[in-house]
Each structure stands twice: as C-alpha cells, then as structure tokens.
Amino acid sequence: MKTRRSTKIIIYLFLLLYSITTLFPFLWMVAASFKTSGAIFEIPPKLIPDLLFKEGMWSNYIEVLTEHNFLKYLGNSLFISTVASLGQLLTCSLAAFAFARMEFKGKNIIFAVLIAMMMIPVEVTIIPEFLMFSSINWLNTYLPLIVPSLLVGSFGTFMLREFYQSIPSSLVDAAIMDGAKPFQIYRRIFLPLSKAPLATLFIIAFMNNWNDILRPVLYINSPEKRTVTLGLTEFQSLYSTDWNLLLTASVIAIIPMIIIFIVAQKYIIEGMVNSGIKG
Amino acid sequence: MKKWIGMTVLFVFVIGFLAACGNNSDEGRADSAANAGSKDDKEASASEAINLTYFSWDPSMEETNSALIEKFEEAHPGVTIELQSYEPTDYWPKVSAMAASGNAPDVLDMSSGYVDEWASKDLLLNLQEYIDADLNEADYFTDVFNAVRYPDKENGDMYAFPYAWVSTVLFYNKDMFDEAGLEYPTNEWTWDEFLNASQELTIDTNDDGNTDQYGFWFYGRYAQIEPWIYQNNGDILNEDKTEFVVDANGKEALKFLTDLTTEHKVSPRPKDVEGTNQQDLFPTGKVAMWVDGSWNIANNRDIIGDAFDWDIATVPRGNNWSEDVTYGWPDNIAISKTTKHADMAWEFVKFMTGEERSVEEFAGGKVPIYKATAESEAWLENDQKPANKSIILEQGELIGRNSYTPGWSEWRGYGAAEGSGMNGEIDQVLDGVKTFDEALESLTPYANDVLERAN
Amino acid sequence: MQYFKKSAYLFLLPTIIGLLLFRLIPVIFAFFTSFTDWDIYSPPVWIGLENYTRIFQSGEFWQILRNTLLFTAIYTVGVCIIGLFFAMLLNQRLKGIKFFRSLFFLPVITSIVAVGIIWNWILSPQNGILNILLDKIFNLQEPISWLGDPDYALIALALVYIWKSVGYQMLIFLAGLQNIPTELQEAAQMDGANKWKVFTKVTLPLLTPTIFFVLVITIIESFHTFGITHSMTQGGPYNATNTLSYFIYQNAFVHFNMGYASSLSFVLFILILVITWINFLYRKKWVNY
C-alpha cells in the first residue's frame, strides 16, 4: 500500500504534535532528577535543571543509589516481575487455548468466574488475602507476590482467547488430519502465531507486577527484600516529601520498563512478518 | 500424554519448591535467631535474648532511629530491635493488617487521632503504671498528655507516650508588612486588627482587576480552621466528643473566616489556587499570612530561603476570647497488648522519648516532649528564621483542645478524603457553591451520622 | 471447529488452582465482611444488611455513582477511539514509526507523581498553559479552574486519565492490527477499493475481536481507576471527582470502614457484571470470528 505524500505530511505533523504532550512530562521528570528540591515546583516548569553541568549534578542519583539501597530493590523487583510475568505467559496461553479451541464441561462458568475476578476492587480482597497468606507462613517471602499472579491471569487469558479464536480453523483442521495432539497444536501453531499478543501481554503483566504497591507493603518486612515501589515510599514521611529524590528514584524505576518495551516491540513487529495466515 | 504428566509433575514441583522456599526462610530465620540467642547466653550474663519489632511512620527518620536503637541495644545486651519504617499512607494498612493477623509489632508509632480507637479495641498496653513508677513528670510537656488518655481525656490512663508535639501558629511575611507600613502581628492580636491588616495586604499590584497578593490564605483544613474556633472560646463537638454541634462562638468564628473569602476577598477561593500545593502559597510569596501547623517551618525554610523575612505569632484572639487555647497534638509511641516483653518494650519507649533522642530529629516546628531538649539552644535555632520560635514552647503549656474522635477522618474530611465532610463543606462556602447556612445544615446530620456509627 | 477433549482440564490446571486458592477464597471472605462492621485491626462484627441499606440511603453514594458512570462513559469512549486512531496511524509503514510508538507509550510509564505535578500546572487557573492558550484564542473573561470547579473537574480528570493510559489500548490494537494478514488488504485494494473502504470492509471487521476485548477490559478498568485521582484531586473539589473505586479506597484505608468498603465493592461488582454481561450478549451481533 502506498501512502500519498500529502497524507504522510499530515500524519507526521499529527505524530509530532501529540508527541510533545507525551514527551514533555517525561522530560520534566528526568530534568527534575537534576534539580534541587526547591526548584521542582517552579512555575512555569523548566526543562533545564538548575544542577545541570554544575557541581553536585549527580547528587540526587548518588543519594538514591547509596543511602537508599536502590540497586538491590531493582534486582528484587526484576526477579519478581520476570518470574511472575513469564509464568503468566505460560498459564494464560494454556488456559486461553482451552477456552478458545476446546469443548468441555463448565467452560462458560469457569470463564465467567475468571472474568468476574477482575471486577472486585483489590482494596477489599487484599486484607483477606493477607490473612490467608499469614496463616500459611508466607509473610516476608516473595511467594504472595509471585504465585497468584503466575498461576492465574484474567486479563491475559481473556486477551489471548480473543486472538486464538481468530486463528483460522483450516490451519487446525489440517494439523488434526496429520494426527497432531492438542498440546502439539498449541505449541506448533498457536504459540508461534501469537507472538505479538504474547509480547504485548508480557509488557502489561510486567508493568502490573512492577508497579504493585499494596502487596509489597503488606507482605515484605525485611529491608533487603524491598521492591522498587516500596523503595519509592522512603522519600515520603509524616510531614514532608523529598520531591527531588522521589523523582530521581522514579526515573531509575522506569528504566527497566523502557528496555522491556523496546525489546518486546521487536516481537510485536515480527509477529506481523511471520504470521502468514490465510483466511 | 506423557508430556502432560511431565508438565503436571513439573508444575507441582515448582509450587512445592516455592512453598519450601517460604518455609525454609522461616526456619532459617528461627535458626539464626536461636544461634544469636545462644551466643548471647554465653557472652552476656544470664539475660535471655529478646527480639522486639518497632514500626515507625517516618522513613526520613530511619537513619536517626537506627542510631538510637543501636545505642539502646548496647545498653541492653541480648535485646534486638527490628525497625521497620513506612510512610503514613502505607503505615496504617500495614499495622492494621498485622494486628488483624495477630502479629502486631511490639512497639509502634501511634497517632493521637487513633489512640482511642486502638485502646477501645484492647490493642494497646496501658502505660500508666510504668509512667507513674518511672518518670518525673516535670521533665515533660505534660499538657499534651491528655491526647493519649483513655477513656476519659482528663483523668483516663495513658495508652501511648508522646515523643514530640506540634501546635498551630500564624505565619507572616515581614517584608510585606514593612512595605504596607503595618505593625507586625502580636500575640494579643484581635480579629479586627487581623482583618484590617489582611485588607491592607490584599493588593492588585498591576491594576488589572485581579488580586496579585492576598492578605491571608486558608481553606477547610482542620489545622487552619479549629485554631480560630478555639481562640474564640468555641467548639464544634459536645463535651464528651460524641456529637457534632457548632456552638454560638464556633459559628461566629466560622462565619468570620468564610467572610474573609466571600465578603472581604482577602483570601483566595480554593478553586483559584487549585493545582498549587496549599502549603506552598505562603512560602512562595503569594499571601502575607497563613495559619497552619508548626511543622511547616521546615517547608517554609526550604522554599523561602532568603527570598523574604518571615516570622510566627499565635493565632489571633476572637471577640469572645477568654484565654489562649492552642490547637495541637502529640505524636506518640505505643506498645501492643500482645507483646511478650512488656517491660523491655517500655524501657525502649522510655528511651526513644527521653533525653537520648537528640534535637536534630526535631526539624523545624516539631517539639521534643522532653523539656530539656526542647528548651536547648539547639532546638531554638536562634540563627534561623523564625525569630519567635520560642512562642511554640509557651504554647506547650496551653495545648488544650483538638477535634479528634473515632471516625474523625470521615466527618472532618482529611488527607485522601479532603473533599468530603467538614473540609468539603467549608470549601463549598468559600467557592460560593453553598451559603454558610446551607453548608452547616447538610454537615451537621452527616457528621453526626458518622459519629454515631463510630462510637 | 472446536475439539471435545478431556485434556482441556490439564490446560486449565494452573488457572483453576490459582482461581480457587488465591482469588475465590479472598473474594468470598470479602463478601462475608460486607455484612460486618470491620476496622481491620479488630475482629469484624456482624451487622446484617446495614451496610447495604446505608449505601442506598446516603446521598453521597448517588452523587458518586453519577460521577462514576459519567467518568466511565468519557473514559471508555475516549480511550477506545483515540487508541484505535493512534494504532492505525502507528501501523503505517513510515520512517521512524517505531520511535513514535515508543513516544506514544511514554505516558504509561511516566511516574504518576510527575504526571500529577505537570498536569496540575497545565490545568492550573493561574499561569496554566491551557488557560493561557484559551485566553489568546477566545479571550477568557475569567480563568477557568479546570480541576477546582465542580463543573469541569471530572471531565478534566478523565482527560488526564485518557492521556495517561491510552498507550495500553493503542498497544493492544496495534498487536491486533499486526495480526491481520496484509494480503487481504492488498487484495481488496487490487480490486479497486479505496482506503476508507479497505478500512471499513476488511480491516475493521477483522479487528472486531480485539475491539471487543479492549471495550470489555476498558470498561472494567474504568471502574477501578485510582492513581491519578489520588495524586491530583483526591476526589475533590467536594466529591466532584470522587468515583466508586476511589470512595472504596477512602473507606478501606483512610476511614478503615472495611465492611462498608466491601459492600460498596459488591455493589460495584454487580454494576460491572451487568454491563459486561450485556457486552457479551451483544457480541455476536458485531464481532467477527
């Protein structure tokens, strides 16, 4: 498909305009990490930080990384989010395959319950959940942060189910004629075809695990087990907030997400190139 | 099919492994604790190993707290204190959940607003006997002790022990007063004098019809409203704090305040300054006067720097003033009823609230409960603004009233619920959405409904 | 074509274990607490239907429900349409498109604290860039307090939410678009269909499963928004931006009325359930598989 030149210009213009609104807050956040606390609330906000190329330019970063154990927190969060999200890719794709392509008793009920679980606010289930994990001695471990999220993902299952339903039956029929078992169909046809949605799901699952704050607050006690989100709360206190340190730590906290987004995006594109589905 | 069995086994294995991890780490901890204990036994006399958990709501004090704890542990061999700090919005869900699961921390920071509720649920240890036996009351600002008494605020027993207290003061911008040729506020200022100054200080500097500098700033926040009511000898609650009734003097104070915005226009409407941190209006030089908690001294110093000269005074006296009453409260440390080492926990609380706690931990307007520390040159900081910092100490003898009750955050409208309750109703009057009478009419049944349920 | 196989349960094993142990147990527990007075730190006290009758008798609830429904309508429509539009744009084979994709996703990862500070400034009545622009174009009589005036606050807040999270929906639409074989579109164009026709006759029908999914998920999500409300308006001015999810948070962790919060959650649950159920009922009418 060819795009006309004038259309191209209009598209670029639009892309540029909107990018300003998305870029400005982000750049400001980065700039704030090179500011003194008094300069954060300047009006109008400035993108050129007051510490730039001056002595103490990196002082916020040094304080966050040395006085607060942020490298350790990054490692902890990385471990939790990676395990939970990879696990979710596996369990959600398995479940989605069953929901999309198999017939079994209780299918609609199980699916309905799965979706319904998304509708109840976590604020009211978190304390019962805490009491449950407390009774089986899972407190101060990563298990409550990983295991439930690894086993069941309503969002992911639902999303993959929609994609799997749109895969042409002719492909599946042919495989069955060749004598393929359900697991082989799942592995050889569905998994490779769903690279784009799987990569998307990974980004979303990773971010959800990464940004979770309520569970780490409740379940983690030891300072050395803290996650990044818990680390971010170290800059707030009873009567004040260290805004410059908080924003510096926020910048550090999103670096892994940027990397993951860039890497995963490659797979979203590949998904397009490889899916030679015939309708 | 084989693959399936393999998968299932793998899965069960993974879960089992993870579960085992959980148990192992628990056992591991128990082991190391036991080891530590036996080592202590050999090394340090016959005293048994004691582990106490202390929950703090102030992550910014983690360092100083740890240093104090180290000192305490040195003085008490065999005792280990595990410190955990959470900022207030995380702190309360965390301690509540811990208490619900039967694992409440042995020692915990306790807000004056929550003492009654936690004591009434039998969660806090009665400290009165310890206090009577161990402490010389003359060493402390005892006037703030009432806030932690239960069930009766005058004669009840103390269920927590203060480590610091705060009060409310009038902040004023000296440069603006000088420019307008006005005398600085005194501690005997009346409403008329205050209103007059506010009007003089409300200025449209560039004559464009919009006010550029306001004489005063306030909205429905508790620390900005109640001080005026108490300085007019009024109240918004009945004697035993079970009912919301604004008495005549209270009503007069509220009317005087809301008129400042709606009639005299010497204070901006909340919607005019939306998007600016409310505590930054005074230090950024948008307003000449402001009433709020003494802890704002720290934020003011940060933001003002050398931009202008400023100071503090007591809150102006109302028409029905009879004696100075300061709105203030202590921040406290409490002991869980479930602790196994009540005596040692008390030793720790005593240590954390006494003379060992150094003055550096009380930045700005937080006052140490221990008098000798508070009255030291180091706390008064004569080399820094505000010059009148010592008036806060005088207020320590006056702190009489606060509006804390069970359900306070809900009927008062506080923090993350600031838009509701009394705070929201007052803001509606200031923004011109409701009249004063309408607001009071809808607030009274709402607040009483909350109080009835909470009591 | 679907397959009748017992092995389906093996595929579902982890999900079913997880559902039963880690999701259903807390939900059932929460359901019971909705009939109690519970402050979390001490044991719940059974009070029967009192929480529920209180919900429907309080004027506060009805105001918040109205806010919630209005918010959901603005947010869902905004996010779905803008998300689809951006995805279409970013699906073009243009130079540097990958770069723009990352830029458009930036708000999703920008810290909520920074988003709050910057948008507070953009929407501020004094010196706010939006008011300055509007004043230049329309000559405003009086500056508009976007977040301080109850007439505008909810809409302004919903727009910030849309800006912050539309990157997600865009990403899912993009994945859906990438899954549509380009041969189909090219074939249609060879047959002489113009771009608009290709879009409405080929692309859109093939994208309906994704649209359906995004719609259902976005509606559910719109009822659970929290972060930006917390960092920007805290439900104010005077409850004008308070929605059910934020009200539930206030009751659970500010006022510690966990029983009341639970009952509110189940009212919210029924509301979402009905809307989602209607969505699934009408799916066959417009979704292509």
Please sum up the structure shown.
The complex is a heterotrimer of chains A (279), B (455) and C (289). Chain B is of the alpha/beta class and 455 residues long.
Brief descriptors of the model:
heterotrimer; B: 455 residues; alpha/beta; D-Maltodextrin-Binding Protein, domain 2; 2 domains; ten-stranded mixed β-sheet; two-stranded antiparallel sheet; 17 helices; 12 strands; 43% helix; globular; disordered N terminus; C: 289 residues; mainly alpha; MetI-like fold; two-stranded antiparallel ribbon; 13 helices; 3 strands; 72% helix; 2% strand; transport (chain C); membrane (chain C); MetI-like (chain C); transmembrane helix (chain C)
Structural class of chain B: alpha/beta
Q: Can you summarize the main beta sheet of chain A?
A: none
Oligomeric grouping of the chains: heterotrimer
Number of DSSP-assigned strands of chain B: 12
Radius of gyration of chain A: 23 Å
CATH third-tier fold name of the largest domain in chain B: D-Maltodextrin-Binding Protein, domain 2
List the uncertain runs of chain A.
272-279
By CATH, the superfamily of the largest domain in chain A comes out as: MetI-like
Question: At the first level of CATH, what is the class of the largest domain in chain B?
Answer: Alpha Beta
Q: Which blocks of ≥5 consecutive residues of chain B have pLDDT under 50? A: 1-46
Shape of chain A: globular
Largest sheet of chain B: 10 strands, mixed
Secondary structure: helix percent of chain A: 55-70%
Name the overall outline of chain B. globular
Q: Summarize the largest interface: chains and residue counts.
A: A-C, 102 and 99 residues
